[in-house]
């Protein structure tokens, strides 16, 4: 919805705003009124890899680099999933970045 109360969709706004709604922006993009989800066939093979870095190992740099690269490249047949999960482990911060690659 824009400032004039018009309800907008992906076709009228473009991909950039929807990238921001998914977490690529600063969090000041407005209200999402609804999502439409299109179900797809789940492939038999799912490949998952996980990268873990401690803060001392530049964990934040890993996330920043991914956020810069991900919008420009299409590495996977479906949208890629990045989960960053800061955790307390043994008295220190640990940031985990997990990318799920689904291949048929």
From TrEMBL:
Q: Which InterPro entries match?
A: FAD-bd_PCMH-like_sf (IPR036318), FAD-bd_PCMH_sub2 (IPR016169)
Q: Which GO terms describe its molecular function?
A: flavin adenine dinucleotide binding
Point out the signal peptide segment: none
Q: Which SUPFAM superfamilies did the record assign?
A: FAD-binding/transporter-associated domain-like
Please give the superkingdom of this protein's source: Eukaryota
- Report what the protein is called: Berberine bridge enzyme-like 21
Q: Which organism is it from?
A: Senna tora
Q: What is this organism's lineage?
A: Eukaryota, Viridiplantae, Streptophyta, Embryophyta, Tracheophyta
């Amino acid at each position: 919805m824009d400032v004039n109360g018009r309800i907008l969709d992906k076709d009228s706004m473009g991909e950039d705003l929807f990238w921001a709604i998914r977490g690529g922006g600063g969090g000041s993009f407005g209200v999402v009124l609804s999502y439409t989800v299109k179900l797809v066939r789940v492939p038999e093979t799912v490949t998952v890899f996980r990268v873990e870095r401690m803060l001392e190992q530049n964990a934040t740099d890993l996330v920043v680099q991914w956020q810069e690269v991900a919008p420009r490249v299409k590495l996977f047949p479906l949208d890629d999933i990045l989960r960053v999960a800061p955790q307390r482990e043994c008295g220190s911060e640990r940031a985990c970045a997990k990318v799920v690659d689904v291949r048929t």
